[in-house]
Structures are given as structure tokens and as C-alpha cells.
Automatic annotation (TrEMBL):
EC number assigned by the record: 3.4.-.-
Lineage: Bacteria, Pseudomonadati, Pseudomonadota, Gammaproteobacteria, Alteromonadales
Signal peptide: 1-23
InterPro entries: AB_hydrolase_fold (IPR029058), Hydrolase_4 (IPR022742)
EC class (word): hydrolase
Protein name: Hydrolase
Length: 289
């Protein structure tokens, strides 16, 4: 995972120093924007129900004029619209295989690369507020560009869980999926920074990052909620998801712990797909009375 790798590099280079983790060092950014997505290559990754799936490129321009690019997966038998927010450094060009797992579900999916990652444009400075504003713009775009007769769920993986919960606090959504969820950024960094490094370095978190508290956000959300977490996840361990689950005031919440699974690997497991399908059924089963 790029979060873990970045932090370890910083600590090795700055041993004996005071290390302050900021948004620019915490959030992965490419050196340059990729030219475009290869739809042929992406479509070739779809092996499940390929005849039912249509994938196209999508773009939106933020109010500040930044171009974000992504993909839209339409399933002919869709029962739900899913807006997907990926992990830190997880870009469509390298991780499109997850769309094949989504193809197992009756779901339409929209997924944008984060600003400065993959095929989305970059600015010189990056802040948490930038990503939060982008997330809201992506949500609003998705509501306008997916069927309006289906419920809308937001799925956040790892760092994306912070944005998914933020959207749930700012917009009306029908369902929320937190996958390998982060509880708070300071807890994540404490978990990732090896204990021996504190002998040589003092690691602090910038106020901007320290203020991100997924537990506070999740307390405000009361609609259906699904947690997916790998039992062997050492990056965002089960304890993080358990704390969020316990804090949630949702009356319809499920914590699914996936056996023999590491970080960001849940969607590759049949147990996760089954839990997801059950979650979708719960969002749609009673709409017709």
C-alpha cells in the first residue's frame, strides 16, 4: 500500500528528525498525468457477465477548472448505483480489475481517479478540502449521469472510506460501504509507523489530517451500512472497522470480516461479494411494497 511505503521512506530518510505528516506527503500524487484510459484493456479485464456490461469514459470539470477523468460501468440488470472511491494511489489504469468484481453485482458503478492521480489533472498544492470538494462534485455528477430510479450507494476503500463518510454527512445517500476503513488518520499513522522509529524520530500529524475523524462522521449516518474488512489486514486492522461499527447509529449495519484476506483485497473474495449482494437486496427489496 502506498500510504505505508511513503511513511516508511520518510522515516528512513529523516531518522533523528521531527517528521510532520502533511496532506502532500500522506496522499499519493503522480509526477505527471497519464494521457488517457485504454478502454480496450479495461474491457478485456471483464470476465464476469461481460455481455451485460458496458464501460465508458467520463469526465467532469470542477468549479476551479480542474479536469477529473474516470469510468462508468453500466450493468443491464442493475439494481443500485455505486459511486466508488478508491484507496490512496489506486488508479484506474492499474487497478481496473476491481471492475470485474463489481460486474458480479447488479450494480452500475462510477469511479474517478483522484486529482493528481492517473488520468485526472493535478495542481501544485493538495489539501484534504480539495479531495472532499472533488468527492462532492463526483457525487453530484453521478446522480445526474446514472439512472434516477435506483438507490445510490457510496463505496469507500481505505482512504476512500474517509471521503465516503464525508459524502454521507453532506448528501442524502441510500447506502454506505466502508471497505478496509480508516477510523482516524492519527490512528492509521500510529499503526503504520514502526515502534522502533520513535527512538530516532518524532512523528506528528498536521492539523488538517488530524482533524479527519471517521468515527465522528459515521455517528451522523443512520441509513444502511456495510463494513468489509480483511481478517489479516495489517494496514487498517479489524479494530478500526469494529470501532466505526460500534460508533454507528445505523439500525441496519453489518460488519463482514473476510477470512485470509489482506488490505484492499476484500472484493476478490466470494464472502465479500455475497455480503455486498445481500446489502444491495436490502436496499431494493421493499421499494415496491
Amino acid at each position: 500500500m502506498k500510504i505505508c511505503t511513503t511513511l516508511l521512506i520518510i522515516i528512513f530518510m529523516l531518522s533523528g528528525c521531527a517528521v510532520n505528516i502533511t496532506a502532500d506527503s500522506f496522499i499519493y500524487q503522480d509526477d505527471k498525468v497519464e494521457p488517457s484510459l485504454d478502454l480496450i484493456q479495461i474491457n478485456n479485464k471483464i470476465t464476469h457477465d461481460a455481455t451485460l456490461i458496458d464501460i465508458s469514459k467520463i469526465s467532469l470539470t470542477t468549479p476551479e477548472g480542474l479536469l477529473l477523468n474516470g469510468v462508468k460501468l453500466l450493468h443491464k440488470n442493475a439494481q443500485v448505483n455505486v459511486i466508488f472511491f478508491a484507496g490512496n494511489g489506486m488508479k484506474i489504469s492499474q487497478s481496473a480489475g476491481i471492475l470485474d468484481q463489481f460486474a458480479l453485482l447488479p450494480a452500475n458503478v462510477i469511479w474517478f481517479d483522484y486529482r493528481g492521480t492517473g488520468v485526472s489533472e493535478k495542481r501544485s498544492n493538495l489539501s484534504v478540502k480539495d479531495l472532499q470538494n472533488d468527492a462532492l462534485n463526483i457525487f453530484d455528477f453521478s446522480k445526474e449521469n446514472l439512472p434516477d430510479n435506483l438507490p445510490t450507494a457510496v463505496h469507500g476503500l481505505s482512504m476512500g472510506s474517509l471521503l465516503a463518510s464525508y459524502i454521507a454527512s453532506e448528501r442524502a445517500i441510500d447506502g454506505l460501504i466502508l471497505d478496509g476503513a480508516i477510523s482516524t488518520v492519527p490512528e492509521l499513522i500510529d499503526n503504520l509507523v514502526p515502534a522502533w522509529s520513535t527512538v530516532f524520530s518524532t512523528v506528528t500529524v498536521s492539523p488538517e489530517l488530524a482533524a479527519i475523524d471517521n468515527i465522528k462522521l459515521i455517528r451522523k449516518y443512520t441509513n444502511p451500512l456495510l463494513f468489509l474488512i480483511g481478517k489479516n489486514d495489517s494496514t487498517t486492522p479489524v479494530e478500526f472497522s469494529q470501532a466505526l461499527y460500534d460508533a454507528s447509529n445505523s439500525k441496519d449495519k453489518t460488519l463482514t470480516i473476510i477470512a485470509d484476506t489482506e488490505h484492499s483485497q476484500t472484493m476478490k473474495r466470494q464472502q465479500a461479494i455475497k455480503a455486498y449482494a445481500t446489502f444491495i437486496k436490502g436496499l431494493t427489496c421493499c421499494e415496491d411494497g
